[in-house]
From TrEMBL:
<dbReference type="GO" id="GO:1904680">
    <property type="term" value="F:peptide transmembrane transporter activity"/>
</dbReference>
<dbReference type="GO" id="GO:0043190">
    <property type="term" value="C:ATP-binding cassette (ABC) transporter complex"/>
</dbReference>
<protein>
    <submittedName>
        <fullName>Peptide/nickel transport system substrate-binding protein</fullName>
    </submittedName>
</protein>
<dbReference type="GO" id="GO:0042597">
    <property type="term" value="C:periplasmic space"/>
</dbReference>
<dbReference type="InterPro" id="IPR000914">
    <property type="entry name" value="SBP_5_dom"/>
</dbReference>
<dbReference type="GO" id="GO:0015833">
    <property type="term" value="P:peptide transport"/>
</dbReference>
<feature type="domain" description="Solute-binding protein family 5">
    <location>
        <begin position="84"/>
        <end position="434"/>
    </location>
</feature>
<dbReference type="Pfam" id="PF00496">
    <property type="entry name" value="SBP_bac_5"/>
</dbReference>
<dbReference type="InterPro" id="IPR039424">
    <property type="entry name" value="SBP_5"/>
</dbReference>
<dbReference type="InterPro" id="IPR023765">
    <property type="entry name" value="SBP_5_CS"/>
</dbReference>
<feature type="signal peptide">
    <location>
        <begin position="1"/>
        <end position="25"/>
    </location>
</feature>
<keyword id="KW-0732">Signal</keyword>
<dbReference type="InterPro" id="IPR030678">
    <property type="entry name" value="Peptide/Ni-bd"/>
</dbReference>
<comment type="similarity">
    <text>Belongs to the bacterial solute-binding protein 5 family.</text>
</comment>
Length: 525
């Protein structure tokens, strides 16, 4: 999702869709393109300032990149999307699935010298539960209470078996210092914009808004001390300016995923390396099932057959995308993907037939999208033009981001064009996106059979047990066109060949700018 899952009403989409805020670039006044890299400084380009320093409510890419280096999560993600230990060393469920236990490292400290303990974990998750904000609140609905059994052990009591709980709380919940955040009347409203007390591999030491954010290495750091002493995030107004700075040697890498056309231009530059990784999310069209005539599955199927998926992938995405088989269980999720499900064929004649069967003529709909999203802005006209061949009129509404978010949250649209940046846990993801009343159920799906299958998948304590009901649920979503998945993007991230060791993660929110990656990167020999 875009901090792929959402953090507070307007931020909900921000986690699942790309985010960009124009800023004034800073300049070091030095090209440095010929100087060899050292372990002293790594400079990263971004197109957005930090909006929120409170990691529990941050909602831009740069928010995530900076605060993830300051505040630990229980688990991290490897390149395949699997959970791996970080603050947590091990985690498990009881036999009945109603108790979850997490054991913690004992060697991590906050920057003021106090130890990171189970009390901090309990405070963070309880604050989110009580104040009911952010995507984490939507992912921990089974939690009755959390308690510190010891300084290094947390026990969660659940109201029902929930095999998604530990994955969700482990990966999505930033751990904050209780002794700092508890002083605020509201954790959600705590700005945390100065005098930071953190416990990551880097600490934030200087902020020049619109220019740069400087972070210094923490020594020692329990999970592993990074090679690079200083991380600098430089703010640029757009990707083109970032690319120029990268080519000139002013920065070492671009944190945000490159638009496909830009990646195609850079792939043969001998001074740069393109890192490619398939996304755990997808681009899609959602049809408002509460608006006529889209409450009729035949109309939704007609719309699905009126999209030229291959053209979108090859032309708009320059080939940096693959088919999702029109399924929410994409090839990026091999443990769940169902090979029996196939992509809707682009078939205008079939669309016309389905509309005729539904008794619909002169179908005219509007489609909203974020006009600042370069990929969607490129393929939205292709959706409109292909639909014309089926006799369907689609009126494009490219909107300023805040207006787009507002309309989406209010479900004020016929067709929604967007993307989930990371959908890493299908049982939990489907509950958020397609269960009746789900936090990001923008299509307003309400299907009792689907709800039952998602519940069954979430109760399962292993992936093996969850697979069958979740695959059946995904087939319903496919056949009923509750979501029309267009493609899975192949992300391209560019860095100078002077550096090596980056660990790419399958999300733009993680990119190669994540704690594991920046702890491993080093100058190329």
């Amino acid at each position: 999702m875009r901090r792929g899952f959402l953090l507070a009403a307007a931020a909900a989409i921000a986690l699942l869709t790309a985010c960009s805020t124009p800023s004034v670039p800073g300049s070091t006044g030095q090209g440095g393109s010929q100087a060899p890299a050292t372990g002293d400084r790594l400079t990263i380009g971004t197109t957005a300032d930090v909006v929120n320093y409170n990691p529990l409510v941050g909602n831009s890419r740069t928010d995530s990149w900076v605060t993830n280096l300051m505040y630990p999560h229980l688990t991290q993600m490897d390149e395949a999307g699997k959970r791996i230990p970080y603050l947590a060393t091990e985690w498990s469920y009881s036999k009945d699935g109603k108790t979850a236990t997490v054991k913690l490292r004992d060697d991590m400290k906050w920057s003021d010298g106090k130890p990171v303990t189970a009390d901090d974990v309990v405070f963070a998750v309880t604050a989110v539960q009580k104040e009911k904000f952010g995507v984490v609140a939507g992912l921990i609905t089974a939690m009755e209470k959390a308690e510190a059994v010891s300084p290094t052990e947390v026990k969660f009591t659940l109201s029902r078996p929930d095999g998604t709980f530990l994955d969700n709380v482990g990966f999505w919940l930033p751990i904050v210092p209780k002794h700092v955040f508890e002083k605020a009347p509201s954790v959600q409203k705590f700005a945390n914009d100065a005098n930071w007390v953190s416990a990551g591999p880097y600490k934030l030491t200087k902020v020049e808004r619109g220019q740069r954010y400087i972070m210094e290495r923490v020594e020692p750091f329990g999970p592993g001390q990074p090679t690079v002493k200083e991380i600098v995030f430089r703010v640029f107004p757009d990707v083109n300016t970032e690319v120029l700075a990268l080519r000139n040697g002013e920065i070492d890498l671009i944190g945000n995923v490159l638009p496909p056309s830009t990646a195609a231009d850079l792939k043969n530059d001998p001074k740069l390396k393109l890192v490619q990784v398939p996304s755990l999310g997808w681009a899609h069209l959602q049809y408002n099932t509460k608006r006529k005539p889209m409450d009729d599955v035949r109309v939704r199927q007609a719309l699905a057959h009126a999209v030229d998926y291959e053209a979108i992938r090859n032309i708009a995405l320059k080939g940096y995308a693959k088919s999702a088989n029109s399924s929410v269980l994409t090839p990026s999720q091999p443990d769940y993907a169902d090979p029996s499900v196939s992509e809707y064929a682009f078939d205008p004649a079939k669309s016309k037939q389905l509309l005729q069967e539904a008794g619909v003529t002169n179908l005219s709909l509007s489609m909203i999208y974020d006009q600042a999203d370069p990929n969607i802005a490129r393929w939205a006209p292709m959706v409109r033009d292909a639909a014309k061949q089926a006799g369907i009129e689609i009126k494009l509404q490219g909107l300023e981001r805040n207006t787009y978010l507002d309309k989406t949250l209010k479900r004020d649209f016929d067709i929604y064009a967007g993307s989930w940046a990371i959908m890493d846990n299908p049982p939990a993801n489907l509950g958020l996106a397609f269960k009746t009343g789900g936090f990001i159920n923008y299509a307003q799906v309400s299907d009792p059979k689907l709800d039952k299958l998602i519940d069954e998948g979430q109760r399962a304590l292993t992936r093996e047990e969850a697979k069958a009901p979740i695959q059946e649920a995904a087939k319903i979503i496919h056949d009923q066109v509750y979501d029309n998945v267009l493609y899975v993007e192949t992300f391209n991230i560019a860095h100078s060949i002077k550096w090596t060791g980056f660990k790419p993660m399958p999300s733009e929110l993680l990119s190669i700018v994540n704690p594991l990656s920046l702890a491993a990167v080093k100058p190329a020999s």
